[in-house]
Amino acid sequence: MDSLLQYLMNGLMLGIIYAMVAVGFTLFFGTLNVIQFSHGDVLTLGSFAGLSALSIIPNQSSWLSILAVLVFSLVISAIIGMFIAQFLILPMREAPSINVLLATLMFGTVIRESIRLFYPDGANPKRFPSLLPSTRIAIGSFTLPFDNLIILAFGFFIIFLLSLIINKTKLGLAIRAIAQDSETARLMGIPFNKYVLLTFIIGSVLAAFAGVMDAFYYNEISFNMGLLLGVIGFTSAIIGGLGNIYGAILGGFLFAFLEVIGGSLLPSLVPSIPSAYKDVFAFTMVIILMTIKPTGLLAEKLSERV
Amino acid sequence: MINIRPLIITLAVALCVGSVTAEAKDTVKIGFIGPLTGGNSAIGIGGRNSAQLAVDLKNKESKTKYHYELVVLDDECKPSTGVQVATKMASDNSIVAGVTHFCSSVAMATLNTYHRFDFPIIVWGAVLPDITYKQNYAQVHRVNGTMITQNQVAARFMTDLKYTRFVIVHDTTDYGKGHEEYFTQDIKSLGGTILGSFGVPVDQQDFTTELTKIKELKPQVIFFGGLTPLGVRIRNQMEKMGIHAQFEGTSGIKSDAFIEGVGKDVAEGSLSFLEGAPAEKLSGGKFFLEQYKAEKFNEPPEAYGPFAFTATNLIIDAVEKMGPNRNRVNQELNKTNNVNTIIGKVTFDDHRQNIVPLVSAYVVQDGQWVLWEDSQYATKKRKLK
Question: CB burial class (10 A; 0-12, 13-18, 19+) of residue A38?
Answer without folding.
Answer: buried
